[in-house]
Every structure is written in structure tokens, then in C-alpha cells.
């Protein structure tokens, strides 16, 4: 009896170890396929014909879907961050530094990362589900048969639209956060809008703006790229649409944190 139980336990442990090994192998295979897909997309960016109409259409759709949520989130973040920091700075008698501290925090870190995560949830999932639905309904196969390059018409336009849209949304998020911070400051003391803006931008410099702008372009690129990759390589069946959207959000969100970490390390080294 004991030998039978031990044999069953050993078989279960072997089965679990095989599943773990296959899962790790699947991760590395997925990464390799993503690298190949990324190279093909980058090549397609510089290869005519250029689908300008589709690019403008996708940029408007992606920006319009995310603008409201990004604006409200930025406004609330500025409002809450100001109300949280004001008592702390008041204990040190440094309330005059509050506008500049809020602006530096939002422009350098909070604005790009939070907007990137929102766009990962809205854009990447939408792109992944849309392209996966096209793959399931064989629209992509029909494009290939008819002579249309789906990688250029479907994928490249959405990646470029995300690259352009995400930095613009980050600018709006920063602007609304400063407006929310201005309203929060006026809860504690009367401050003119001109004085608040002058204090906000007094501490901002090229070192703050340039890395934040560059990394938002990378955010947009990988948000669009991962959404397209997950949808383009979706499986057969309607359930693959949901899987593509879900995995696109998770992968894009994790990638945003990794890119942000890399840029913080590079900025500190420079």
C-alpha cells in the first residue's frame, strides 16, 4: 500500500515538473516570437505603401477612447497628491515648494506611468481583441489572399497610432493633474493661477522633460505592439479573442514597469 501511494506521488511530482518546464519553455518561445514580430513590424514602418488614412483613423479612435479616463485620472491624482503632501510640507514650513514638487512628480514619473497603465488597459486590450476577431473570422487570411499586406495595414498603423497618441495623452494627464493640484492648493490658501504655474515650472528642466517624453514613446510602441502581437497570433475559436485581450493587458502593463525601471536607471547614471 505504501509503495502504491509513493508511486502515485512520484508520478504526480513528475507531472507537475513537466508542466512547469513546459510553461517556462512557452514563455521563452513567446519571447522569441515577439522579437521576430517586432523586427518585422520595424521593417514595415519604413516600407511603402504608407497607410496614412488608416493611421489617422486609428490615432483618433485610440485617443478618443482613452482621453476621458486619462483626463479624469490625472485630475484626481493631482488633487489627491496635493492634499496628501500639503500637511507634510507644512510641518517643515515648505508649503511654497508644493507646486514644484507636484509638477516634478507628475511630469517625471506618475503622469507617464499611470497614463501608460490606463492605455495598456484600454488600447492594448482593444487592439488585441479587434485583431484576434479578425484572425478568427479569417479577415486577415482574406487580406493575404487578396494581395493586401495585413502586417502593414493592420499592425503597423495601430503601432504608430499608439506611439503618437500615448505621449499626447500624457501631456493632457499632466495638464489636468496640475489643474487639480491648483484647486487643492486653493483649499488651504488663496493662490493665483499665475503664481501657482510659475512655482510649478520653476523646478522643471530639460533633464525632467526629455526622459519622460522619450519613455512615453516607448510606452506607446510596446502597448500597440503587444496588443497587435497577441491578436495577430490568436488561436482558433471565439474564446481566443478574450485570451488575446487579457494577455495583452497583462504583458503591456508589465512591460511599462520594465521600461520605466530602465529609464530611471539610465537617467540616474547620466
Task: Outline the structure in words.
It is elongated and about 70 Å long. It is built from 8 helices and no strands. 36% of the residues are buried. It has helices spanning 2-45, 52-91, 98-136, 139-146, 150-188, 193-202, 206-232, 239-269. It has one domain. Helix content is 88%, strand content 0%. Helix 1 packs across helix 5 (150-188), helix 3 (98-136) runs antiparallel to helix 8 (239-269) and helix 5 (150-188) packs across helix 7. The model has no long low-confidence stretch (mean pLDDT 83). It is mainly α and 270 residues long.
Largest sheet: none
> What ranges have pLDDT less than 50 throughout 5 or more consecutive residues?
none
Broad shape:
elongated
Class of secondary structure makeup: mainly alpha
- Could you report the average pLDDT, rounded to the nearest whole number? 83
Give the terminus-to-terminus CA distance.
67 Å
Count of helical stretches: 8
Beta-strand content estimate: under 5%
Integer count of domains: 1
Secondary-structure element string? HHHHHHHH
The Rg value, from CA coordinates, equals: 23 Å
Q: What is the strand tally?
A: 0
**Level of helix content?**
over 70%
Brief overview, please?
The protein is mainly α and 270 residues long. It has helices at residues 2-45, 52-91, 98-136, 139-146, 150-188, 193-202, 206-232, 239-269.
Protein topology:
Elements (H helix, E strand, L loop, with lengths): L1 H44 L6 H40 L6 H39 L2 H8 L3 H39 L4 H10 L3 H27 L6 H31 L1
Helix pairs in contact: 1-5, 2-3, 2-5, 3-5, 3-6, 3-7, 3-8, 5-7, 7-8
